[in-house]
Amino acid sequence: MHEELSEILKLAALDEFNTVITFENVVQAKDYIKRKPESTEEFFLIVCAMNLINAGIKTKEFKEYIHYGMLKPRVSKLLLAILEDTERQFDIQFYINESQQCAYIEIYGLQFGFHNITIYDELKIFINSAENKPVEWKGIRLQKVANELFNYAVKINEME
Description:
Number of helices: 6
Radius of gyration: 15 Å
Number of strands: 3
Mean pLDDT: 92
Structural class: mainly alpha
Order of helices and strands: HHHHEEEHH
């Protein structure tokens, strides 16, 4: 299964490759971003759904159907859910750069970045804590392979 993920990442490195986002996946992704994750696999699916929407917003086809207002607060709420859920252990790391209002979420070796997130008071506490360890952007543009990552995440969730 990790081989499939490696192949997707190879596509991200190709200048000529651009993902083709399907309307069906956008509809599904809108549903997934409303979930609260129960497992690391489901967390990955939600983040891949957010990445798909983030990429889709920038296209003409989906401009009327999805928008940043539906995405950015959800990214923040997902991070809050992790901070508040002490019972579950997710195999993820995240860092919030307050000045850029950017969250970097790392899962399965992939780093997803979401700019202009909503900074709730609870997130400010995390931002000012020792747990908020700065990270450098790895330079892999995951929006370029948003549809492929989303399909992969759906597949591994169905296998769970």
